[in-house]
Specification:
By secondary structure, the chain is of the alpha+beta class. The chain has five domains: about 130 residues, Orthogonal Prism (Agglutinin, subunit A), CATH 2.90.10.10; about 140 residues, Agglutinin, subunit A (Orthogonal Prism); about 120 residues, Hepatocyte Growth Factor (3-Layer(bba) Sandwich), CATH 3.50.4; about 100 residues, Phosphorylase Kinase, domain 1; about 210 residues, Orthogonal Bundle (Transferase(Phosphotransferase), domain 1), CATH 1.10.510.10. About 20% of the residues lie in helices and about 25% in strands. A six-stranded mixed β-sheet has the order 37-41-42-40-39-38, sandwiched between helices. Strands 13, 22, 23, 24 and 25 form a five-stranded antiparallel β-sheet that branches. A five-stranded antiparallel β-sheet has the order 30-36-33-34-32, covered by helices on one side. Strand 11 and strand 12 form a beta hairpin. It is found in: Membrane. It holds the Pfam family B_lectin. It is an enzyme of class 2 (transferase).
């Protein structure tokens, strides 16, 4: 643990005494003030690297803060009033009474500096080029400094002394105190805690340096290293080291809203495209490495809210997800728990336990470690399911290695991770199951009759006359304002859908204001319909008013086909409008957008998420091809047409290009449809089109999901990687599949599954349609029921007959 001989000299050089201010900085004189207004009002450090003043929040109020001022992001590193923002017109004044004072309009005190009694008085203030704001005496002795009162961030040259702590913000944009603390304890231990939110008292520790009786200060030096030193200045624990020099990079270390302590760097000579990136470290990239599994007990809900679970993305950042059958309590704050979208199982001794109305959804590698109230072993999974099903208090059963745990509401500390070797069995109400109304006993019915009769008989003649006249008036007004009757297309009389008028959908979408997307035939808008159960958000697909070739056929095909489908991996059609020139379709709203947005964003979905999505898409296509009364060829399978519901499950959307087949048909001829890159070769050869065109598109999509990249990318490390399907086959043939996932550690640890999925994808993109498997067989291969043999070169069959 001893430091090198020169360490003391180095520390003294890097950390000059904090009792002397650097006079070269621009001083702020007594009486100087700032006022919160529309533009940022601030004082700058001498170099201009930092600013101190008012920053306007998204809600319009102001935060008194210090921020990096020469970068686009204007990142806040300290704030005075994080828990109580002030309105426009608030003032900050350096008073002659030795204080920096923040007042709201009208003079109400919001915040002020304070320091121990001294013979010295404040002579001036200054924002140093280190990001430290100071109040200094005439001899430059520092009487107060922001470095002594950190919020969530420490900067190079800053020290966290005994008894000091960092408090995480509530969210990335809400700077108020959050749910985590990093404490430099008086016993010398540096500890990360959850808090008893909304109060700031600490709850449960989830990481520590274990330096009790050794630790003295947490130091962030000018070389970019962060370490814990003893009172004799020797290093007792290193958090990060060997980072880029502070001469060329801005640096900060922050306890973020997700409870992880991270260090960031930003190039001082950066461009407008520069951004903060995590600093490289010999010890760790973040503390702790996996926040989801680290926090597992104590009070509260864990990293995510109650009834939610946490998992790490490819960027190793946690994100919260509601399990199937649940939705977020507050869409603007995913940490505020999830709520069931169904009526819970009845616990009524006089009635049946409704076991026939509930089913289970399995989540692999998932668990809620708390909320146990029943434990059994050794048992099998079926026994565990039945035990939970027959217990009205049981919300979830956890099964693994012959052990079964019953969980009750609220579920807490949820996580999904490869190291969690358990399966969560989520009990949800079946879609077609409703909670019956309780039966009134005879006494209750008689009582109701008596009440109704009393009201009727007790009404005065005058009130009855008034009621009669009022009814006539309302009827008359209704008759003269009666809306146009929506004429239902005769072809759709057998479709169990709601027929909407144009006026209803115009109102629901606010005049078709918020566009979700557009295609060749239509534009999709976000809308709200009170008549829709549960979530009243809908997606309204508006076909072009001018009838184009195929437009009418597309509309009729979608309505007649989708209305008859019923599968959890398909988007549900709720209604339609076929009024005059207006033709629209009303779908359930998918709040998590498309697979394209999820797959190709910088923060990619995990390997586990991708494999589950692949299986869901395959099951949906298999249903369309083989289980519908009218066989459906989608004809345009691509990431943009796969939507994600509130549980991030895949839902196939957009049947606008579907070609319908009767049960006695096996193929059809039609014009080229689909999207470049996903179109099967037979489209270009004037060959009959079968369901195998969807299999081809699925194979391309599968490769994209394996590699988290698009099928064609012009800017690649090597020229032979531009076309993903060709490159994937070459990698498989050369036994170098790890090249496809070289930046995905989770997938690299599961190479057996990677190989299986690549083989399935190559089988699907065979240029000869007869060589492609059916989607039913694809599902069986994905589930492990059918072995996957080595596929041939996708173009070998065509080449052999050319």
């Amino acid at each position: 643990m001893a430091s090198p001989p020169l360490l003391l000299l180095l520390l003294l050089f890097l950390f000059p005494s904090s009792t002397v201010a650097q006079k070269r900085n621009t001083n702020i004189t007594l009486g100087a003030s700032l006022t919160a207004h529309h533009a940022d009002s601030f004082w700058s450090s001498e170099s201009g690297h930092f600013a101190f003043g008012f920053r306007q929040s998204g809600g319009g109020d102001y935060l008194l803060a210090i921020w990096f001022n020469k970068i686009v992001e204007k990142t806040v590193v300290w704030s005075a009033n994080r828990n109580k923002l002030v309105p426009r017109g608030s003032t900050l004044v350096l008073t002659t009474r030795n204080q920096l004072v923040l007042n709201a309009p009208g003079g109400k005190l919001v915040w002020a500096t304070s320091f121990a009694a001294t013979n010295q008085s404040v002579s001036y203030a200054a924002l140093l080029d280190t990001g430290n704001f100071i109040l200094a005496a005439a001899d430059s002795e520092i009487l107060w400094q922001s470095f002594d009162y950190p919020t969530d961030t420490i900067l190079p040259s800053q020290i966290l002394n005994l008894g000091k702590n960092l408090v995480a913000p509530y969210t990335q944009t809400n700077y108020s105190n959050g749910r985590f603390q990093l404490a430099m304890q008086s016993d010398g231990n540096l500890v990360l805690y959850t808090t008893n939110f909304p109060v700031d008292s600490i709850s449960q520790s989830y990481w520590a340096t274990n330096t009790v009786n050794f630790g003295f200060q947490l130091v962030f030096n000018l070389s970019g290293s962060i370490y814990l030193i003893a009172e004799n200045k020797t290093i007792v624990a290193t958090l990060t080291s060997n980072n880029p020099p502070t001469q060329n990079f801005y640096q900060r270390a922050v306890l973020e809203h997700d409870g992880v302590f991270r260090q960031y760097v930003y190039p001082k000579m950066g461009t407008s495209n520069s951004s903060w990136r995590e600093a490289w470290s010999q010890v760790s990239r973040s503390i702790p490495l996996n926040i989801c599994t680290r926090i597992s007990n104590g009070m509260g809900s864990g990293v995510c809210g109650f009834n939610s679970y946490c998992q790490l993305g490819d960027d190793q950042r946690p994100f919260c997800t509601c399990p199937p059958g649940y939705t977020v309590f507050d869409p603007n704050d995913v940490t505020k728990s999830c709520k069931p979208t169904f009526v819970s199982q009845r616990c009524d001794a006089s009635s049946s336990p409704e076991t026939e109305n509930f089913e289970f959804f399995s989540l692999e590698n998932a668990d809620w470690p708390q909320a146990d109230y029943g434990y059994f072993q050794p048992v099998d999974e079926d026994w565990c399911r039945n035990e939970c099903l027959n217990d009205c208090f049981c919300a979830v059963a956890i099964f693994g290695d012959g052990e079964c745990w019953k969980k009750k509401f609220p579920l807490s500390f949820g996580r999904m991770d490869a190291d969690v070797n358990r399966r969560a069995l989520i009990k949800i109400r079946k879609d077609n199951s409703t909670l019956p109304f309780p039966n009134l006993d005879e006494k209750g019915r008689n009582k109701t009759k008596i009440i109704i009769g009393s009201v009727v008989l007790g009404s005065s003649l005058f009130l009855n006359i008034i009621f009669f006249l009022l009814t006539l008036f309302i009827g008359y007004r209704f008759s003269i304002r009666k809306p146009k009757v929506v004429q239902v297309d005769p072809l759709m009389l057998d479709v169990n859908l709601r027929a909407f008028s144009y006026e209803e959908l115009d109102k629901a979408t606010g005049g078709f204001r918020e566009q979700l997307g557009s295609g060749a035939f239509a534009t999709v808008y976000k809308g709200t319909l009170d008549s829709v159960k549960d979530n009243n958000l809908v997606a309204v697909k508006k076909l072009d008013n001018v009838v184009r070739e195929g437009g009418e056929q597309e509309f009729k095909a979608e309505v007649s086909a989708i209305a008859r489908t019923n599968h959890k991996n398909l988007v549900r059609l709720l209604g339609f409008c076929n009024q005059g020139e207006h033709r629209m379709l009303v779908y359930e709203f998918m709040e998590n957008g498309s697979l394209a947005d999820f797959l190709f964003r910088p923060s990619k979905p995990t390997w586990h998420q991708r494999t589950q999505l692949v299986l869901g898409i395959a099951r949906g296509l298999s249903y369309l091809h083989e289980e519908c009364n009218t066989q459906i060829i989608h004809c345009d399978i691509k990431p943009q047409n796969i939507l994600l519901d509130d549980s991030f499950d895949a839902r196939i959307a957009d049947f606008g290009l579907a070609k319908l087949l009767r049960k006695d048909q096996t193929r059809t001829m039609t014009a080229i449809r689909g999207t470049k890159g996903y179109v099967a070769p037979e489209w270009f050869r004037s060959l009959p089109i079968t369901v195998k065109v969807d299999v081809y598109s699925f194979g391309t999509l599968l490769l994209e999901m394996i590699c988290c990249r698009k099928n064609f990318e012009q800017e690649t490390e090597h020229e032979d990687e531009m076309i993903l399907s060709d490159w994937a086959y070459d990698c498989m043939k050369a036994r170098k599949l790890e090249m496809l996932i070289r930046n995905d550690e989770e997938a690299r640890s599961d190479m057996k599954k990677v190989e299986k999925l690549v083989k399935i994808a190559i089988w699907c993109i065979q240029e000869e349609p007869s060589l492609r498997p059916s989607m039913k067989k694809v599902v069986q291969m994905l589930e492990g029921a059918v072995e996957v043999s080595a596929p041939p070169d996708p173009s070998s069959f065509i080449s052999s007959i050319s």
